[in-house]
Amino acid sequence: MRSPKENPVEEYINKKYQVNNEIQINPKVKTLLDWLKLTAKSDYELIKNKEISKQFIYQSGKLGLFGMQIPREFNGIDISVSETAQIIEQLAAIDITLDSFTILQYSCSHSIFKHASSEIKQEYLPKMSTGEMIGCFALSEPAAGSNPRGMESTLTKRDNDSWILNGSKCWLGGASIAGVFIVFAKHQSDDQSGISCFVIPASASGMDVGDEQNNLGVQGLNLRTVTFNNVVVKNTYYIYKKCNITFRII
Known about the structure:
By secondary structure, the chain is of the alpha+beta class. The chain folds into two domains: 24-130, Acyl-CoA dehydrogenase/oxidase, N-terminal domain (Butyryl-Coa Dehydrogenase, subunit A, domain 1, Orthogonal Bundle), CATH 1.10.540; 135-243, Butyryl-CoA Dehydrogenase, subunit A, domain 2. 32% of the residues lie in helices and 24% in strands. The strands form two sheets. Strands 3, 4, 5, 6, 7, 8, 9 and 10 form an eight-stranded mixed beta sheet that branches. A two-stranded antiparallel sheet has the order 1-2. A hairpin with a 2-residue loop joins strand 4 and strand 5 (162-172).
């Protein structure tokens, strides 16, 4: 029987990540894992007022938590998939909210890193990799969930260089503190079809971040609904352009 003084999270972390002297571990990974272990054992305030602590974002960002598989040229630490999985697993052992938040940041930064133009990468990745700028992955909608086939957000052509975005996205983690949104929408035009994905800066005119949504779990994600009302999307903001609607995300 476990002693009342024993901490099951601490016990798990110590057992799982006890470093064997014969095993070489990436120094950046070890530094991050060690810091997370110390954080789990301390009275450190990870979630404050239903949001991830800004102090946690700042300190973990400095250690590379949000740039795990991003190259060093963009302030990432460029570690492997297996090393990333170690860190994600430890985050989940501490608090599933931290794990979910980090995966959301990973989704945003990797969408940009893998598919965006070099200009967009240079503009956003260096700040996102260090946690200086938070990303928000905007796919789910009230009537469609995360099924792109049911998406109702639309892009209407404005001119040769831009489009007009209208619609709403829901259950967005980190929306209240995000500096950039990764948004999906359908083209609405006689000569255009498919779904496109693009970056929208949080300062864009016509965006409205709604009130916090009440949910039973992962309250630190501070889920919000975001409405887009005639938001101008420049062609240079595209990440994926006019994809066929042949997939479903659940």
